[in-house]
Amino acid sequence: MPRRDDIQKILLIGSGPIVIGQAAEFDYSGVQACKVLLEEGYEVVLVNSNPATIMTDPEFATATYIEPLLPGPVTKILEKERPDALLPTLGGQTALNLAMALAEDGTLERLGVELIGANAEAISKAEDREKFRATMNEAGLRIPWSITVESVDEVDKGLAGGEITLPAIVRPAFTMGGQGGGVGYTETELRQVVSEGLAASPINQVLVEESVIGWGEFELEVMRDRNDNVVIICSIENVDPMGVHTGDSITVAPAQTLTDPLYQELRDAAIKVIRAIGVETGGSNVQFAVDPESGDIAIIEMNPRVSRSSALASKATGFPIAKMAAKLAVGYALDEVPNDITQATPASFEPTIDYVVTKIPRFAFEKFPGAEGRLSTYMQSVGEAMSIGRTFRESFAKAMRSRELDAKPEFPAEDQELLKALAIPTAERFDQVLEALRRGLGVEAVHEHSLVDRWFLRELEALATEGDGTDGLVRTYKSVDTCAAEFEAATPYYYSGHERARADGTPPASEIRRETGRESVVILGAGPNRIGQGIEFDYCCVHAAMTARELGRDAVMINCNPETVSTDYDTSDRLYFEPLTAEDVLAVCAQERPEGVIVQFGGQTPLKLARTLEEAGVPLLGTP
Description:
By secondary structure, this protein is an alpha/beta fold. It has 20 helices and 22 strands. The protein is globular and about 75 Å long.
């Protein structure tokens, strides 16, 4: 199916200011969408209120409006620009809620503006908790028992009548990052969480839901086109059991503990979900709970838009979800869109990866001395780092050192106190798990208190007692190619792994390709977002890469943040997805032998490495 020629101008809504649950990943997705729509010949009207973003640079849209993301200002823009369509699925919950408000008040119909990517009915089915439950039931898919309430009095009636049992999960409608949600272990706690959830929901509605705390949590990134072709981009597994928001959990891709039959069940269910909700074109995220004992599956929720997990899945696989979502929204089918990474396969070719990706959240509880620090079903992390390794142990170890913690975690001196601490999910939980396993407290005791799957605990026990498995091996660099080396990668996107040396003692082959013969300039990114170091430094790093290329150098980016534009595979000439530690950066420099390294644009993270790099003989560009 060719691109749509009945639309010429498209309005794209950004995500506004950076908040917990909605950060740089939507600048990344918005930039991808703007670029592809302009390349397709459409006029792009962008509205966003965040000046620190790449997408608000004038070259990324035909017209750019820095305006509040509210119905009034956006209505005026619609009246002036008269776009044919509005694409709401790439600006997070802000864009989705704003599009729904414009649809419900009649503005879009009055001005003849079509919602593309996901229509109002599909958005409502996914975001309205009562409609979502009814849709899943009609599709024959199991979801936890739930009751939709719009007042605390309704909760009291449910408790009195036995319809609500404790503990119970509270999920507000039309919110991002689980805002206003939580777990009610007692009647008093439940009333409090419901009251907060009702205040957070723009439609004053929450779902009180059966608790599946302790079950395994999985999510699938799904894409669908107008011809009803559906592909699974990536499976992601939470290392934390249910009870912690996926944005606050350490996650791995691909899923590690699923049997193939169980994975196929999740795959089939995810396809049923996206069809039942009615997302006609683009990406969605479907989350599942799986009982580790019986294998029972329950649908938790579905995002009818790209999300933070979409950015993670894109960087994990090399499959540009936001770019493909924009292509599908304007009429293309998956089999008509080429895969940029291989340039030999279409987008309907499901990605396969032969490495392990670990995402680890970054918290800032140290900035708020009074904060409890307990993790729940609402999101509290301020950023995240991603790592890629040949094994789970290697990947997990790289993720742990990518966090750039301001202070080392402290542990209870008594073993029993340490085990008790594992029962409460906190930012330090996996530091505590490793410490418990290091002390020899055993997999079973740690599982009993944390409910973390035994497979992960056995791997973490080996990591704690034997290291990451790289001793005696040689560092090499591999390509991210979306297809487990079935086709050669055409884009220069790399990660480090460790392998045995060759029989003659020479290092194993590296997959790094240098095709220009130009001098290279290494740009150090900012690492995971945190308070005081956010998207503005990614903006600087991206412009540094653009300028280096304009000046005839190869721009080489090192960063570990999957949310960013700087870690898009086409921002630089070569991208290394690596921790920003002295060891990892020096290893890349040994491969690149650059003209110099730029440390000024990534905030404090690269500045802290400057002296070590200089002492190692690596030239620093700019202010010494």
